[in-house]
Amino acid sequence: MMNTLQGKRILLGISGGIAAYKSADLTRRLREHGASVRVVMTRSACEFITPLTMQALSGQPVHVELLDYKTEGAMGHIDLARWADVILVAPASANFMARLAHGQADDLLSTLCLASSVSITLAPAMNQQMWQNPATQANVTLLRDRGVTLLGPATGGQACGETGPGRMLEPLELVDALARGFISDRLSGLKLVITAGPTREAIDPVRYISNRSSGRMGYAVARAAAEAGGNVVLVSGPTQLHQPERIRCQPVTTAAEMHDAVMREIEDAEIFIAAAAVADYRCSQAAIQKIKKDNDELTLLLEKNPDILAAVAARKLPPFTVGFAAETENLLNYAQQKLFNKKLDMIAANQVGMNQGFDTEDNELQVIWSGGSIKLERAPKDRLARQLIRLIADRYHEKNTTQTH
After folding, report:
1. CA 109 to chain CA centroid, nearest Å
2. What's the domain range around 97?
3. In this structure, are 168 and 307 located in the same domain?
4. Domain endpoint, select from 138, 156, 180
5. Fewer C-beta neighbours within 10 Å, C or N terminus of the chain?
6. pLDDT for 301-340, tens place per residue?
7. How confident is the model at residue 74 (pLDDT cuts 50, 70, 90)?
8. Which residues lie below 8 Å from residue 270, measured CB to CB, with a gap of 6+?
9. Are residues 152 and 232 in the same domain?
């Protein structure tokens, strides 16, 4: 199984209870699996384990106070909520679960849970009688009805000397469960060809035409598609990124090479996602030797590169085809034109500029298809990619269900 926690952002909440000592090992295990961990503790949690311990293990400052003048400007509760891919509260005490179930926001951790749009997972830990109390069970039902995931509790001996349900799951059990939460079967059995990164078109042996694409969005989409069960082929231009796990990567340099690689793979693909920033033009004749700066001006004769996206969409039996539109102006208008002119199934449009879109950790997308659209708000690119893959999977299955009836 692929390591789905690699690069994930885990906000670990610790509420008051003796099981808080397990949170130290949990933090270490999460980081071993490649996750970034930031810790938020309730005041009562600090009575069982110190913030200094959790700071040493997470490698990040630990947050305790809701209104902290030292951190609110740079990493306040809203920023923390936006940062996370998932919120895990371990241990989750009966008191914390009660406050969360009833929408209280009287400390930093409960406020974060209310302010976040990501999934919330609780690892309950309490005395067995507290767990079985009707009030706690009513809160459990309420939380589950609202989409909160509960992991555990386990049954066994407790610190109080009693035996029964209420033990917090062991750290490795929580890590495994959290990792499975990022996996789905939405694209199971489907082949996806995804392009990413820039292309480079030679001017001479040392110079080239290219663009500012880092490839991060395309690689994030490829990872999300693999997590959704897809058989992913990533055709990538030159980037500084590591090849994602469980993905077949085909490195290319020029637009022509990317075109040829895509055409070799597209025959049996169900979905094509063109996230690469392909150079529109190349030099008609690249110089064999380095061009010397003998003249005040240099004229380059350019010719169009093959339009990979249009070529795939124009096939007799095209796959479900998704384009990207990176624009500096008239975003929606240009994206809709591209969707219509190239006969795409879907397009993901984003505004780009000097500090937007390229070379950034986050982004926002306007996703458009025939008869619908949705805005994916600014978020880390990995999270955006998972949202986009869910949309693509839903639209793909809807289209194919319609065509078979």
Report:
1. 22
2. 9-180
3. no
4. 180
5. C
6. 999 999 999 999 999 999 999 999 988 888 889 999 999 9
7. very low
8. 190, 191, 192, 319, 320, 396
9. no
Do 282 and 364 reside in the same domain of the chain? yes
| Side-chain-facing half-sphere of 315: CA atoms under 13 Å | 19
DSSP state letter for 2: -
Sequence letter at residue 308? I
Residues 6+ apart with CB under 8 A from 167: 19, 125, 152, 153, 154, 155, 156, 157, 158
Tell whether 92 and 172 lie within a shared domain. yes
Q: Other CB atoms closer than 10 Å to residue 170's CB: what's the count?
A: 16
**CATH number reported for the structural domain that contains residue 356 in this entry:** 3.40.50.10300
Inter-residue contact 366 to 350 (CB < 8 Å): yes
pLDDT digits (tens, 9 = 90+) for 147-188: 999 999 998 876 767 777 899 999 999 999 999 999 999 999
My answer on whether 122 and 35 are in the same domain is yes
Q: Which of 273, 207, 205, 189 minimizes the C-alpha distance to 235?
A: 273
Q: Provide the terminal-to-terminal Cα distance of the chain, rounded to the nearest Å.
A: 35
Say which of 113, 160, 249, 283 is annotated catalytic.
160
- How many whole angstroms from its chain centre is CA 308? 26
Listed residues 180, 214, 230: the one ending a domain: 180
Peptide bond into 153 cis (omega under 30): yes
Site of tokens 């009513």: 138
For residues 69 and 93, is the Cβ–Cβ distance under 8 A? no
- Contact in structure between 259 and 306 (CB atoms under 8 Å): yes
DSSP code per residue over 159-187: TTS-EEEEEPPPHHHHHHHHHHTT---TT
Residue 102 lies in a domain: yes
Beta strands 191-196; 302-304: pairing state: unpaired
Question: Residues 270, 396: contact at Cβ < 8 Å?
Answer: yes
| Catalytic annotation present for 160 | yes
